[in-house]
Design goal:
CATH superfamily of the largest domain in chain A: Aldehyde oxidase/xanthine dehydrogenase, molybdopterin binding domain
Oligomer: homodimer
Number of helices of chain A: 19
Number of domains of chain A: 3
Largest sheet of chain A: 7 strands, mixed
CATH architecture of the largest domain in chain A: 2-Layer Sandwich
CATH topology of the largest domain in chain A: Aldehyde Oxidoreductase, domain 4
Strand content of chain A: 25-35%
Distance between the termini of chain A: 50 Å
Helix content of chain A: 25-40%
Structural class of chain A: alpha+beta
Shape of chain A: globular
Largest interface: A-B, 45 and 45 residues
Radius of gyration of chain A: 27 Å
Strand order of the largest sheet of chain A: 3-5-1-12-9-10-11
């Protein structure tokens, strides 16, 4: 399809680029306020213990220390993102009487400088009564295991179930029945900017906090909750943010401490985490143990699946409830599963809590699906692409009452990668026993934001305010948060296209809870382009209605005429010569209004789209690898992707997301891994925790499949997160193709390869 | 009358007080930005000249100097507040080829610090071709006088005429005809905070400027105009402002320079004026020469008046056109003038331009009216209060087609001061020849904002946005500017009363042109309480409509029921038990809206109120003095005021305005005066330019007359500016009572008194 877009689909340079490369971008840690103090957090050094005593006397006496707080000083109000299920909110701003992992927050110091604060930490003496610690899912769920949270039996804080169709029948009638256990590990978000915030208490008692967050609204609401204040007495401002990937979407305890302490002290307080703190104690992707049983008919069609996952949640729930649900959702998606039964369990252990991370349950679930499909293809003697084409989801597919696929280019993606990679030749060639090369496939689907309201907001999922002016400019106000993914650019593009103006004509005020409209649920689940984009279209409809009315009046136009805004003009669609300059139309609309400014609110909440999401992306990725059979070292030579993200609003930004996803998937597949001993994370620097660098990146080729989603803004769907899923299965499949051994756990390291090659 | 108000009419402490006394208030000069440079202005040292050459070479070479600009570097676009009359816009951001007063802005330097910038100024060599200079009105309007602006004949840049009734007939039939010439001088606004601004050019080319201004909107529009940019690419933020009194309501040339230079340099630039610059070159009150001829009937009633004023405008028009009009307006107001003829002329001289100043033409005009009324009383052998009561305006009086008095407590004010000062006794007593005491009367009326659109804005005169939240708070966004007069407090009171919440429940975002609604014309003409107050009521009507609908639905209420918001509740007016908590009503209204936030815009533009103002304040003031007949020294012992400002929204704030007005009137009457020699202002420090201090203040007694204006917010009218008019005439009358000599020019100094006593 070709659309006559002016701004949509164009490679618009990132609007934050100049500030970033010129060093003008202000991140939270760049903020300096008069009288500002520096905060540090004292963390538990033991994995599980009762706190018997905290002696702050020596630390308090240290010159330059202004305040030390422990849990006892706080209002002791529990919190969590899952406000819909209050009993899931299992954290306190500072430990009350118990610590549950190495790194658990116990106390906070505010001092005149960082060194003093740090020294004060070393002077605080915590007396622990140590408790047995659990690091393993199997141990945690055993009957009689010590409970990490009182009243949580078997340390299983929650379970999720999805069930439709008759799985038992499918299994009974199966031509092929596969069963397997899969084990995936934990990795870090590894965002470039460590968490940082500055809180300032105003003289009227209100608080302003600048913080590195994906979700200013959550921080506002949860800060208010934990401080015992009113929501609107808290102002959260998101400065430039250097990445989040799910790791910055909750209230963080240092945000509470900064706000609470600034209020006590009447001075601003800043907290900035070190990389060591980030890696040792920060949120991470859920490690999971998964069991999958899948049935096929004679011709290779999936007939049923039973999928069970145990999420190692660490010490607190965090975003585990959502990960458990989405893991189950994606375990039964992407392909047609006539029957499906899922049970997910979130399990506490004495490790740093896992949380939301790019993919949000999908990378784990899809590693299982993709690996099992390959095993099935092997058993059937089918090509892995053929079995996928046979089972692939299509437009119109639905899980009745749950979700529906309004647009799907999955099959086209499969055909595209087959063609451009010369898959059929290469797969045959590389499968030969003496080949040290491999080619493999990985596929994905992902949501364009969630249709679930676990935060229990009373507001629209996203809202924008649009103002237009008679100088031809517009002002977009939105709480949507650019954390590096580029929504500040993409949302400007959508507004520019709607109004027929240029992106540079638009002033953007974003992510300031006091001045941008209530609310936006934040940057996660690939929701921003879809939802805020639709909210902009909604607002512009109201704006354009006013401009069109004025045009109609000026021209005394025939009622039948359609009108549009384009190229700085407002005109009759079929008579482009009959029109007004955009700015003149605004001026006249204002005249019509006797001066009132032309302003509109717009919002989007995903109604009538079931329980999961309003739209799904799809894609297929082929990885090509070379294995050094002497050393086991894996070289990923090339990654080829074909994906259906609907209309790419900004292709170059989509490409950036794609490359970042491949980098993250590559790390997940081959090198990233938290090394833990007795609850302690051992690799807490980027020297020890290995993230693929630019030099490690494979050649990358990609194709966007032409799909126009009927509900997406200008046909767009998600493009930022789904692509993190296919890379690990594709690489795993390519490795299996090269070494003729199939791995069911991640990461696949040289060591593992060598060990298993020797078995063959 | 008694009204059942919760917040209105209460002494609410100023919301800016805490920040100011604690030193937390951030004024423009307190703003420090990374990489900020410091600007200084080179000013003309001669009163009138052509610029032959400007040599900046040495200055440019000075280490630390980053940029020097002259008029030639600028886009050379003229500007002025009177956009409705483009030819009146007679200023350029920097002199192009001519200077017209000592202090005229020629060049600007930006350097790494103030000392370097100052040194650079001394290295710039300006070659002048001097022209004859004019310092006097009579000289300026003489035929054949050199013209200060080309094409402005007789240096009379504009005239204003008001004419109604038959003046000639009144004069012909007069029982008493008085004629006199009056001369008033120039005084300074003497605001505590010298002008300051910081401009920052963003990487996208937009500009943000923090500036000490009364009129952020004017600065936005005129900066855009002079820079050749679009209005909405300029963001003006008003920080705390330390007084304005009319002196900060135009685009100032250093604002242009800061913006222009920051754009050129890519670094923020700050300009802060010195007190010397302020007093030597800043705006000031118009000196005027006035001629008045007034006719009375046999019984003492005014039958007609012919009034002519010549305003010494200095080198540019500035706000002269408005001062010329308002002077004429007030020359024919306060009393009933059956016929009236006014001619006002704005005359250029080679002196610093006069501009708007508290009272805006009224202090000058009313000095004439009041003095002439006293002379008439003497002639008639009437008491000055009696002649005033006989002629005083009343509710319902109008000048057909021009203006109408909707509420007037003037007679009550006269009666009140008569009673409480024991006027009748004292006047008799002090008039005796051997008394060195005097008692005198001065009266006033003033506008509650102007109904004229000389700025030619396309927006409402004022607009607000009100948001309410289900935590019981509200957010008020307004471009209205608190410059120390207290509107941030008063507008919160009005909103609190409307919604039945507390002032501390309200977050206020004010005076930021990028986020507060378009537009507000600024803080001048005592317009803010009246106009922004009405805009708030307008917005709240829309908010309350939603809350009432929800209440109606919840109660399934009888259609006849009135409802109100009070004490944190929304309920049936006659059944206060039938209601909801305010925050619960908001929550339900949002539920009804399926999540949409409860937000409303409101605006006010003074339509259907004639050409002048929607409401007039009135008042009478009695001054008591003691004159040392040996030295001529005047002691003002007591000032008693009764005034009709409608409902005082915040009585303690009204009292503050009253005290400040008396202080200013006292200075105007007795000690403040710019001493000029050959166009140069000689008294440019507060040691030489004498402003009354707290120790100089007389005893002060005041009464608010109970008047409820039908159009004012909660019956309020102006309270900030009118009171600056009566003090000088009252003191002058008291002096005449004491020394038996009537002065027709200001200030009345000890020297003048001595000189004139000796004549008697």
């Amino acid at each position: 399809m070709t659309y006559n877009f002016s701004v949509i689909g164009k490679n618009v340079p990132r609007q934050d680029g100049k500030a970033k490369v010129m060093g003008a971008a202000q991140f939270a840690d760049d903020i300096k306020l008069p009288g500002m103090l520096f905060g540090k957090i004292l963390r538990s050094t033991v994995p599980h213990a009762k706190i018997k005593n905290i002696d702050i006397s020596k630390a308090k006496a240290l010159p330059g220390v202004k305040l030390i707080i422990t849990g006892e000083d706080t209002p002791k109000i529990n919190f969590g993102n899952w406000r819909l299920v209050p009993e899931s909110m299992d954290e306190y701003p500072l430990a009350i009487d118990r610590v549950r992992f190495i790194g658990d927050e116990i106390a906070a110091v505010a001092a005149v400088d960082i060194d003093t604060a740090q020294e004060a930490l070393s002077l605080i003496k915590v007396e622990y009564e140590e408790l047995p610690a659990i690091y393993d899912i199997d141990e945690a769920i055993k009957d009689g295991a010590i409970t990490i949270h009182d009243n949580v039996k078997n340390n299983t804080s929650l379970s999720r179930t999805i069930h439709y169709g008759n799985v038992d029948e499918a299994f009974a009638n199966a031509h092929l029945l596969l069963e397997g256990t899969f084990d995936v590990h934990s990795v870090s978000h590894a965002y470039m900017e460590p968490c940082s915030c500055v809180a300032k208490s105003d003289l009227d008692g209100r608080i302003t906090i600048w913080t590195s967050t994906q979700t200013p609204y959550y921080v506002q609401v949860l800060l208010a909750q934990t401080l015992g204040m009113r929501e609107n007495d808290i102002r959260v401002i998101k400065p430039f943010v250097g990445g989040g990937f799910g790791g910055k979407m909750e209230l963080r305890k240092w945000e509470f401490c900064a706000a609470f302490m600034s209020k006590k002290l009447g001075r601003p307080v800043k907290f900035t985490l070190t990389r060591d703190e980030e890696l040792a104690t920060g949120r991470r992707r859920h490690p999971m143990k998964m069991h999958s049983k899948i049935a096929f008919s004679k011709d290779g069609k999936i007939t049923g699946k039973e999928f069970t996952s145990y999420l190692d949640g660490g010490a607190y729930n965090s975003m585990g409830p959502t990960a458990a649900f989405l893991c189950g959702n994606f375990g039964g998606f992407l392909y047609k599963f006539p029957s499906y039964k899922y049970n997910g369990f979130h399990v506490y252990t004495n490790k740093p809590p896992a949380g939301a991370m790019r993919g949000f349950g999908a990378p784990q679930a899809l590693f299982v699906t993709e690996t099992q499909l390959n095993i099935a293809a092997d058993k059937f003697g089918m090509d892995p692409l053929d079995i996928r084409l046979l089972n692939a989801m299509e437009t119109g597919d639905e899980i009745p009452g749950v979700t529906k696929v309004h647009s799907c280019g999955f099959k086209k993606c499969l055909e595209k990668v087959r063609e451009v990679t010369k898959w059929d030749e290469k797969r045959k060639e590389f499968t030969k026993k003496d080949s040290n090369k491999g080619i493999g496939i990985g596929c994905y689907s992902f949501i364009s934001g969630g249709a679930f309201n676990w935060f229990n907001t009373q507001y629209p999922f996203t809202a924008v305010e649009v103002k237009v002016f008679d100088d031809g400019t517009a002002h977009l106000l939105t709480m949507a948060s650019d954390i590096g993914q580029g929504c500040d650019t993409v949302l400007r593009q959508i507004l520019a296209e709607e109004l027929g103006i240029k992106t540079e004509d638009i002033r953007l005020t974003a992510a300031d809870t006091a001045v941008t409209p209530q609310a936006d649920l934040g940057t996660w689940g690939s929701r921003v382009t879809f939802m805020a984009g639709n909210a902009i279209i909604n607002a512009c409809k109201k704006i354009k209605d006013q401009l069109f009315k004025v045009l109609s009046l000026k021209l005394e136009a025939n009622v039948i005429h359609d009108m549009e805004c384009k190229n700085g003009m407002v005109y009759l669609k079929n008579r482009p010569d009959k029109g007004l300059k955009f700015k003149e139309a605004v001026r006249l609309a204002q005249k019509y209004n006797r001066g009132e400014p032309i302003v509109a609110y717009g919002s989007y909440t995903p109604r009538d789209h079931g329980l999961v999401t309003p739209a799904y992306s799809f894609g297929a990725q082929v990885a090509e690898v070379t294995i050094d059979k002497e050393t086991g070292i894996i070289s990923v030579d090339k990654v080829t992707t074909a994906h259906d993200c609907g209309t790419p609003i900004n292709p170059i930004a989509v490409e950036g997301q794609l490359e970042g996803s491949i980098q993250m998937g590559l790390g997940y597949a081959t090198c990233e891994n938290f090394v833990m001993r007795n609850g302690k994370t051992l690799n807490t620097t980027f020297l020890d925790y290995k993230v693929p660098t630019a030099l490690d990146m494979p050649e990358n080729e990609h194709y966007t499949i032409d799909v126009y989603d009927p509900y997406g803004p200008y046909g767009a769907k998600e493009a930022g997160e789904g692509l993190v899923s296919p890379t690990a299965p594709a690489i795993a499949d390519a490795i299996s193709c090269a070494v003729n051994f199939r791995f069911t756990d991640l990461p696949i390291t040289a060591e593992k390869i060598l060990k298993n090659i020797s078995k063959i």
